[in-house]
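Quick question: who can interpret this fold?

. . .
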Amino acid sequence: MSEQPKHQEESGFFLPRWAVPYMWAVIVLVIQILLPWVISTLGPRFGWSQQKPALWNFIGMLPIIMGLIMYGWCLSFHFKTYSASVRLGVSPPRLVTNGPYQVSRNPMYASGLFVWFGWLIFYGSPSVFIAFLLLYVIFSFRVIPLEEQQLEEIFGKDYLDYKIVVRRWLGRF
């Protein structure tokens, strides 16, 4: 695990270490639970009758639960690297390469998409399907490439070596 240079650690907004899990709980609640529900109300819900899901819609709960567990697993590896206060920002203060980061360079994005896939099945909603596809496209072609560029600038050879060994989404070379 390599660290960012000191000059990058000192700028920005800091949060006490104990507050980080609460911040992430709110973020996950809003983005991974409330937002799919709101989007699902924008159109029909297939399999639903009388405001209740059909039995097959409940299959979607499996990827939702698994995705949230994976999300928590990823966050636990980040949390272990935090000191007494954490600088909030786009790039992490340390390069995390263990745990779920051994099989994906982006396990948080993958687990988030897994959760959204579960909501797609649960709600049977074309609106959630469109949101799921948009998230995938935005992650794949905008967010992740920018993040990878930042990580290369910050961590240099350590990140480039990691990038050779671990794939962007899933699997190892």
